[in-house]
Amino acid sequence: MLTKRIIPCLDIKDGRTVKGINFESIRDAGDPVELAIIYSEQGADELVFLDITATVEKRKTLVELVKRIAANINIPFTVGGGISTVEDVALLLQNGADKISVNTAAFKTPDLIEELSNAFGSQCVVLAIDTKKEDDSEWYVYLNGGRTKTFTKTIDWAKQAVDLGVGEILLTSMNNDGTKNGFALDITATLSNSLSVPVIASGGAGTVEHFKDVFQSANADAALAASIFHYKEIEIPELKKYLQPFVNIRM
Question: Given Cys at both, which of 17, 36, 83, 232 links 29, Cβ 3.0 to 4.6 Å?
Fold first, then answer.
């Protein structure tokens, strides 16, 4: 049985960690390097850093941050935000990132996935999908940090991306994000049971039971959360201790 992973996510804006609700109402949550060290020491399996306002001008800032993070932690971490070229990825990997996450750029230019997979290996390429359940009960892909709706169903895009060489899917439910009412079990299960690559569930964690549910009911390979860790509502050692009887988890 594969080990399930717990992944804190740090959304980065102007060099600080921030958190919102349903992709809005952003507030400060601390220094990303300090938080990374804490999570690493607490037993997080991986970390994800997403530059939510990434622009070309801020790329150097992100590279410097990646360098600082790599010097201070010894667990794998993924970096995303504004990545659109092989050169972007090479720079981040050279400075210590283990994996990169692509979202809007990959959707607009699917060939990018193939290019990145060929250049760095599929294990390096994580596809972030922001998804929303609409009135027709279908889940659709959203772009540009959740601001732009597409008419592409999430499962269709995920399958296409895996065929192109994505090694992992980071699935964020916009309906659940920041609500602390639990993960979106239905769409997570759909992807987990249909794809040949690991699925990271994101959006909605509020209790330790929510993690158990997404691992057991939705078959997620990893669960990602932000505010409950940043504001110490749930500590990672306590979460793992709770999960141990139910799933295979690294203590």
Answer: 17
pLDDT of residue 54: 62
Across all residues in the chain, what is the average pLDDT?
Answer: 92
Q: What is the pLDDT of residues 156-186, one digit of tens each?
A: 999 999 999 999 999 999 999 989 999 999 9
Domain assignment of residue 250, yes or no: no
Q: Which candidate, 137, 247, 225, 230, places its Cα nearest to that of 181?
A: 225
Catalytic residue (one of 51, 130, 177, 213): 130
Give the domain range for residue 131: 5-243
Residue pair 150/199 in contact (Cβ under 8 Å)? The answer is: no
> Active site residue: 11, 51, 88, 177, which one?
11
Known catalytic residue: 186? Answer: no
- 159's CB contacts (< 8 A; 6+ apart) are 194, 195
